[in-house]
Amino acid sequence: MIESLLIANRGEIACRIIRTARALGIRTIAVYSDADANALHVRQADEAVHIGASPARESYLFGDRIIAAAKQTGAEAIHPGYGFLSENADFAQSVLDAGLIWVGPNPDSIRAMGLKDAAKQRMIAAGVPVTPGYLGADQSPDRLKTEADAIGYPVLIKAVAGGGGKGMRRVDTATEFADALVSCQREAASSFGNTDVLIEKYILSPRHIEVQVFGDSHGNVVHLFERDCSLQRRHQKVIEEAPAPGMDAATREAICAAAVKAAKAVHYVGAGTIEFIADASEGLRADRIWFMEMNTRLQVEHPVTEEITGQDLVEWQLRVASGEPLPKRQDELAIDGWAMEARLYAEDPATGFLPSVGPLHHLRLPDDIRIETGVEQGGEVSPFYDPMMAKLVVHERTREAAIEELWEATTDVEVWPVRTNSGFLARLCLEDDFRSGQVDTGLIARRIDDIAQARSLEDYQLREVASALTVLDPMQPWGAGTGFRVNGSSVRSARLLDDRGNVHVVDDFEVTERAAQEEATYFYLGDAYGFSLDRPRGAGAGLAADGAILSPMPGRIIAVDVAAGDTVAKGQKLVTLEAMKMEHSLTAPFDGIVADLNAIEGGQVTEGTMLVRIEKDS
Question: What is the pTM assigned to this prediction?
Fold first, then answer.
C-alpha cells in the first residue's frame, strides 16, 4: 500500500481524499495557493506546501511545482482529484517519469478518451453506440455550420477537450450558430487551451445517464452501476442520484455492459465514468442510449455510487494504484437503496446564478447526513476557483424517502453573507416531475422562473425581523420605543429595507428582550434574507437604477460588444466577463444609448466597477 500521498487539488475533494488516506494510515501532503493558505484541506493534511499565487494557472495548474512539492516532502504518490490536472496526460506522464505513483489511469488511456471526437471514433470501432454528429478535422466556421445544417437543429456544439459543462452551447436555429460557435471556442480556449469542437444532434428529451467503471492493472474491469445526472443548469449538474429512475434490469445490463466494453477498449486502470445520453421520450430503452464521453478520473458525484454499493472509491483508487487487484468482483457488487447528492454552490439564483464571493461569517450545514465540503465558518469563498461549497448526500431505502431527506437537508442550510443556491435546491426537490422520476436535462430550464426566486416572507416573519433589528441596530437605542421596558415590550412600526433594495412597512410589532438574541439575518427554507432599518445599503454590484452596469464580481473582460454612442436594445449583450471559470454576459436593462464605456477587452475588474452606462433614448 502507498505510504505517503500528495493531493494535487483543493477544497472538498482534497478533504475527501485525506479522510480515506488517514483511515488507511497514509501520510497526506496538501498543496495550496496564496488564496488557500488558511483553507480547511491545508489544516487537515499532515503536511502542506505552498505552490504559488491565487490564480489556478499559477498554482494548481503548475505541474512542475506540484511534482517538486512531492519530491520535497518525500511523497510516494500523487492523487489529482478532479478538475485541474486530473485529466492532463502530459502531467500524468511527468509524474511517472519523476518516479512517482500516479493515482489514475495511464496517460495513454487519458489521451485516448481526452478528446471527444477521437474518443467517439474509438467507441464506434469498439461497437459502442454513439450520438449522431460531426467529428471531422475541418474546423472552419463554414464547414461546421454546413455540418450543423445537415444534422438538423437543435444541435450541440462541444469542445473536444471540454468537460464540466464548459465549452458547450446548444444552438436552436441556423442564425444563432455563428455567435454560439465563437463563444464556445473562446471558452474552450480559456479552459482547455484547445478551440476544436464537434457537433452533435441535440436530443429533445435527453437523460444524462453515466456508469461508474473501475479497472486494475491485472486486466479486471467492473462497473458499479449507473447514476442519473439529468438535473442540470447550463450543462452543469445540480442534483445526481443512483440508481437512475425508470431503469429496468435489461436496460441496466445493456448500458453497464457497454460501459465496461468502452473501458476495456482503452485498457483502463482506475476510476472512470462512461457518460451516455438517452432519448427518454418513450422511457429508458437500451436502443436509445448513446455514448457521449468518458471522464478519466473520479467524478464529483462519486458519493452516490459509494452510498448504494457500500464501497469507498477513493480506497479502491489507492489500492489499484498500489498494484492490488480490484477489491470486489462483479458478482459481489449490488445496489442497496437510493442515494442523492445536491451541489451547494456560492451563487445567487435571483441574479441569474452569478457567483457570490466573500467571507463566510455564518455557515451551518446539516449534521445528520453525509457532507463533503472544503469550507467552514470564518473562511471565505474565493473568486479564483469553482463556486461549489459543499455536497449534501443522502441515502435511504426508497427514492421517495431520499427526496424527502434531501429537501430537509437543503432547507436546513444557513449561509451569510455569501449567497447560495440552497433555497433553489429545496424548491427543485418539490417539483412534481422530479418527484415522479420524469427528469430530463431541460427540466430546470423549463421551470427556472418559479424555482429561482425565493419565497416572500410572511407578515409574522417580517415582524420578527423588525423586532430583532430594533433592538440590535445601534441607531435605534433600547429606549427608542414608546413604553419600552427591559423585561416588557413595546408596540412599534418600522420600515425594513431588504438586501434586494425592497422596502417593507411593518406595523404593530413588539420589541422584546428576547429579540436581542435573534439573528438579524433571517433564514427560511434554505434562503437567506438580509435586512436593515430605514437605511439602504450601498449600490453594490450588478445593475444600478440609472442604467449603470456594474461588475457583479472580480473578473476579466473577455469581450466588449458595443462602443460609446451605440444604440442598444433591452437585453442586448454589452460585455462578457470571465469569472470563477465561467463566462457571464452583462446586458442592457432597457433601450437606450451607450453614454459611458469603461470596459476594455482583456482588462481585470473588481466587484462594483462601473463598466457601461446606458441612457434612455429620448
Answer: 0.80
HEC readout, 571-612: CCEEEEEEECCEEEEEECCCCEEEEEECCCCCCEECCCCEEE
Q: What is the CATH number of domain 4-103?
A: 3.40.50.20
Residue 543 pLDDT > 80: no
Topology at the third CATH level for domain 132-201: Dna Ligase; domain 1 (3.30.1490)
Catalytic residue among 297, 319, 427, 463: 297
State the chain's maximal CA–CA distance in angstroms: 84
Classified as helix, coil or strand, 488 is: coil
Confidence of residue 609 (pLDDT cuts 50, 70, 90): confident
State the pLDDT at residue 268.
97
Q: Residue 227: which pLDDT band, with cuts at 50, 70 and 90?
A: very high
Nearest to 265 by CA among 404, 120, 56: 120
Q: Which secondary-structure segment (H or E) carries 253?
A: helix 249-265
Helical spans, DSSP H, in 127-193: 141-151, 177-192
Torsion of CA 392, 393, 399, 402, to 10 degrees: -70
CB 372 within 8 A of CB 16: yes
Residues 6+ apart with CB under 8 A from 332: none
- 371, 430, 378, 373: which is closest to 404 by C-alpha? 430
Name the E strands within 398-500: 414-416, 489-498
Coil, helix or strand at residue 150 = helix
- Does 297 qualify as catalytic in the annotation? yes
In whole numbers, what is the pLDDT of the chain averaged over residues?
A: 89
Q: What is the DSSP letter of 325?
A: P
Q: Say if residue 154 is preceded by a cis peptide, omega within 30 of 0.
A: yes
- Kindly report the CATH number that applies to the domain delimited by 548-615: 2.40.50.100
- Under 8 Å between Cβ of 569 and 588: yes
> Looking at residues 280-298, what average pLDDT do you find?
91
| Distance separating alpha carbons of residues 157 and 137, to the nearest angstrom | 14
For the chain, domain boundaries: 4-103, 132-201, 459-533, 548-615
Mean pLDDT of 457-469: 85
Rg of the chain, C-alpha, whole Å: 26
Tell the burial category of 259 from Cβ atoms under 10 Å away from its Cβ (0-12, 13-18, 19+).
buried
Mean pLDDT over 147-162 rounds to 91
What is the bridge-based pairing of β-strands 197-201 and 155-163?
antiparallel
